[in-house]
Amino acid sequence: MSPFTVVLIVPTGVGAAIGGYAGDALPVAKAIASLSDRLITHPNVLNGAQLYWSLDNTYYVEGYGLDRFAANQWGLRPVRQNKVGLLLDRGIEPELRLRHIQAADATRATLGLSLTDYVITDAPLEVELRTADSGASWGTIGNPGSLLRGAEKLIKQGGAEAIAVVARFPDDQSTELQNYRHGEGVDHLAGAEAVISHLIVRHFQIPAAHAPALQPLAVDAGVHPRAAAEELGYTFLPCVLVGLSRAPQFITEAKSLTTDSIWAESVDVAIVPYSACGGSGILSFSNTQTEIIAVTNNSTHIQVPPEPLGIKVTKVNSYLEALGVLVTRRAGVDYRVLDPNLSSLRCIV
């Protein structure tokens, strides 16, 4: 029997009620991982600034790579440990840069991670933040060539097998940020972060993730628990380095026949917010035998339910209910028979 494999998707930068903040979907991932042989999810589900929880059966897969995996174009090869390259934006001030280098050294000394020497980009990356009419966040990079040259140096000269990027993001005191800190807004950094990691993964086909560099914010007694992880210290880097240290490598050539490689046809269940079913990964899974569970109470700022797209889903109210469906699925029980109002079989005509 093949391993019971689940994909958990919470789109980034869309204001998800659960998973739209700093690692607040991690409890969901932990619970799902306990019911799965393999859980595949993306960095913003697992990243919690300086907080993280390493799960042996959970695979940290950047969003672009996850889309390629869902489309069955790339496979995943689990690893014991990656050598992670650290790429720092030249636009980061010297003291703030030092804080990030010290955080990286701390993960080596305390957690035993393997890192290359770091690279500073040859020009500031010049990240700019944007907000769509829907309220979703996105962004731009003024110097994408500098980003790619720095990553290439880490790979060719440092032997990096995964890339952690720290870019200087604009300091912001806007109403949007305050709403986010109080548990009511959209992560205004997430869209631009996705652009950075997507670019590296698409270009080099290796794991990558991003941590923004920002000046610490003033203390605010009203910070919501879901946003509180981002209030800790000077850096969000530790969770990224931990995630990348065991992120699976991408298989981009002909399908590998090794016993440990993972391909999309082995995914039993994909879980997604009900209002966010329009992403590439879910569209790909909808054309396979993968069961899609859509969670209604994880609201987002976008409205793309499955029905207009012709996507068949198992609709549940909460992640608690989704966990129940996973339990029955793994046990080989049709969850519908647990309803006391079970109807009789009907004749197909």
Question: The CATH topology of the largest domain is what?
Answer: Rossmann fold
**Contiguous runs where pLDDT drops below 50 for at least 5 residues:** none
| Spatial separation of the terminal alpha carbons | 34 Å
C-alpha Rg (nearest Å): 20 Å
Helical residue percent band: 25-40%
Q: What about the largest sheet? A: 6 strands, parallel
Number of strands: 15
% residues in beta strands: 15-25%
Order of helices and strands: EHEHEHEEHEEEEHEHHEHEEHEEH
- Global geometry: globular
The number of helical segments is: 10
Please give the CATH class of the largest domain. Answer: Alpha Beta
Q: What is the level-2 CATH architecture name of the largest domain? A: 3-Layer(aba) Sandwich
Structural class: alpha/beta
Strand order of the largest sheet: 3-2-1-13-14-15
Q: Oligomeric status of the shown chains?
A: single chain
Domain module count? 2
Mean pLDDT: 91
What does the model show?
The protein is globular, with a radius of gyration of 20 Å. Helix 1 (26-35) runs parallel beside helix 10 (319-331), helix 4 crosses helix 8 and helix 5 (144-156) crosses helix 7 (190-204). It is an alpha/beta fold. It is 30% helix and 18% strand. Strand 1, helix 1 (26-35) and strand 2 form a beta-alpha-beta unit. The chain has two domains: 5-78 and 260-338, 3-Layer(aba) Sandwich (Rossmann fold); 83-250, Rossmann fold (3-Layer(aba) Sandwich), CATH 3.40.50. It has helices at 26-35, 43-46, 63-70, 94-111, 144-156, 175-181, 190-204, 237-245, 280-285, 319-331; strands at residues 5-8, 38-41, 58-60, 75-77, 83-88, 114-115, 119-120, 127-131, 137-141, 162-168, 208-213, 249-251, 269-273, 291-295, 314-316.
